[in-house]
């Protein structure tokens, strides 16, 4: 069953392979087949790597405006996101926006992870019977550290 939404922030010209590696890293034990949608900021609409990743896996890409993203609080604001796209974060708010539905609110099940210049967060509208996130973490790989 497709129950999760994946928010993605990426550098310009990130490849589909970089994005896929970052998504798989972020998912950890979660099943890739559970992905319902991919979400990002609207200025990434023409990113070839993001489009190719979605097409390769038959996943819809939902795009959100700066205003929609800015309306949600970001746990760990990103100076890079603020400088480059004018919001405090991309992947977490986009994952939450994509997972929301009229029947349920969304919850982050994987907080922002960073891998090879791609940020990924995972949200679900039905996180578990107790309403708590399934998994929360921030994972950085060696290549992301200064």
Please give a quick description of this structure:
InterPro entries: CbiG_hydrolase, CobE/GbiG_C, CobE/GbiG_C_sf. GO terms for molecular function: hydrolase activity; methyltransferase activity. The chain is an alpha/beta fold.
Q: What does this molecule look like?
A:
It is a single chain. By secondary structure, the chain is of the alpha/beta class. It has a single domain (4-126), classed as CobE/GbiG C-terminal domain (Nucleotidyltransferase, domain 5, 2-Layer Sandwich), CATH 3.30.420. Helices cover 29% and strands 23% of the residues. It has five helices and five strands; from the N terminus they run βαβαβαααββ. A five-stranded mixed β-sheet has the order 3-2-1-5-4. The chain is globular, with a radius of gyration of 14 Å. The N and C termini lie far apart (39 Å). Mean pLDDT is 86; it is low at 127-146.
SSE blueprint and pairings:
Elements: E1 4-10, H1 16-27, E2 35-41, H2 48-57, E3 61-64, H3 66-70, H4 79-85, H5 91-99, E4 107-115, E5 118-124
Helix pairs in contact: 1-2
Q: Give the total of beta strands.
A: 5
Number of domains: 1
Strand content: 15-25%
Main beta-sheet strand count, sense and barrel state? 5 strands, mixed
Please list the strands of the largest sheet in the order they lie side by side: 3-2-1-5-4
Shape call:
globular
The stretches of 5 or more residues where confidence is low (pLDDT under 50) are 127-146
Coarse structural class:
alpha/beta
- CATH 2nd-level architecture: 2-Layer Sandwich
Classified by CATH, the class is Alpha Beta
Classified in CATH, the superfamily is CobE/GbiG C-terminal domain
CATH topology: Nucleotidyltransferase, domain 5
Q: Cα distance, first to last residue?
A: 39 Å
**How many helices in DSSP terms?**
5
Overall mean pLDDT:
86
Order of helices and strands: EHEHEHHHEE
- The helicity comes to 25-40%
Write down the Rg: 14 Å
